[in-house]
């Protein structure tokens, strides 16, 4: 199976602080991989390092078996086929739903010809967005804003989609809708790497998963294996 993402010996951080220590990660094309861990474990930093928002200090980050991402700008990484749905959504609040979606494809030569098709897919995935097409993003509910953030990333026509904490602050029913949508996106052929605090739900839908602790990978396995792992259950699933 071909590789969508290969990370080797990755170190990254902020200023003088190193957050990630020699992280290794493999994601095959078409997989759904979840990264779990406590707050401060380095999950978001890992996503930001892959998408170029945090500089790689050492190690390698390679996409699709050949593209070295270390040192590339975030814009170039998007052009290589990697979408990022950031924590906090980061929409344009004074732009409409339609305008936010269009911003995801507007400056991408590979995505513009497919914009109509991708927009139709987004509206099929999230009918609420179609109903609110001309509504300002800043007036949407939290769940609708998350749908729009995912939709905007899909407009870039990604082969690999990084999704950071999509259920944060959402009611359980809306979170379930978002998880179902991510699974559907994956079934359409988009490789997904998900960072998520809802450990039980994310492991249930993942093909494979990694446990990140203090900036290091501590465990990896199938979603089912980690869901049944006593240490994982004690650390992340005990209530």
CA-atom Rg in angstroms: 17 Å
Helix content: 25-40%
Q: Describe the sheet with the most strands.
A: 6 strands, mixed
Residue windows where pLDDT falls under 50 for at least 5 positions? none
| Overall SS class | alpha/beta
The CATH homologous superfamily corresponds to P-loop containing nucleotide triphosphate hydrolases
Percent of residues in β-strands: 25-35%
Describe this structure in words.
This protein is of the alpha/beta class and 239 residues long. It has one domain: P-loop containing nucleotide triphosphate hydrolases (Rossmann fold, 3-Layer(aba) Sandwich). Helix content is 36%, strand content 28%. The protein is built from 10 helices and 10 strands. It has helices at 43-50, 74-79, 97-103, 115-125, 127-131, 142-154, 172-187, 199-205, 223-227, 230-237, and strands at residues 3-14, 17-28, 32-36, 56-63, 67-68, 82-85, 160-164, 191-195, 208-213, 216-222. The strands form 2 sheets. The chain has a 6-stranded mixed sheet, with helices on both faces. A 4-stranded antiparallel sheet has the order 2-1-4-5, covered by helices on one side. Helix 3 packs parallel to helix 6 (142-154). The longest helix is centred in the C-terminal third of the chain and has 16 residues, at 172-187.
């Amino acid at each position: 199976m071909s590789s969508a993402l290969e990370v080797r010996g990755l170190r990254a951080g902020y200023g003088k602080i190193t957050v990630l220590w020699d992280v290794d990660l493999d994601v095959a094309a078409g997989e759904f991989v979840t990264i779990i861990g406590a707050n401060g474990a380095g999950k978001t930093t890992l996503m930001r390092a892959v998408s170029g928002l945090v500089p790689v200090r050492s190690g390698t980050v390679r996409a699709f078996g050949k593209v070295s991402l270390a040192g590339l700008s975030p814009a170039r990484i998007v052009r290589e086929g990697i979408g990022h749905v950031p924590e906090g959504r980061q929409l344009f609040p004074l732009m409409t739903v339609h305008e936010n979606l269009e911003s995801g494809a507007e400056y991408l030569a590979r995505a513009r010809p497919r914009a109509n098709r991708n927009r139709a897919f987004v509206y099929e995935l999230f009918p609420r967005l179609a109903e609110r097409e001309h509504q300002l993003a800043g007036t949407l509910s939290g769940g609708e804003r998350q749908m729009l953030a995912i939709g905007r990333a899909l407009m870039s026509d990604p082969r690999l989609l990084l999704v950071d904490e999509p259920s944060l602050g959402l009611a359980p029913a809306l979170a379930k809708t978002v998880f179902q949508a991510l699974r559907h996106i994956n079934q359409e052929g988009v490789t997904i790497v998900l960072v998520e605090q809802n450990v039980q739900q994310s492991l249930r839908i993942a093909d494979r998963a990694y446990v990140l602790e203090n900036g290091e990978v501590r465990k990896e396995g199938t979603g089912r294996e980690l869901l049944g792992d006593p240490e994982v259950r004690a650390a992340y699933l005990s209530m």
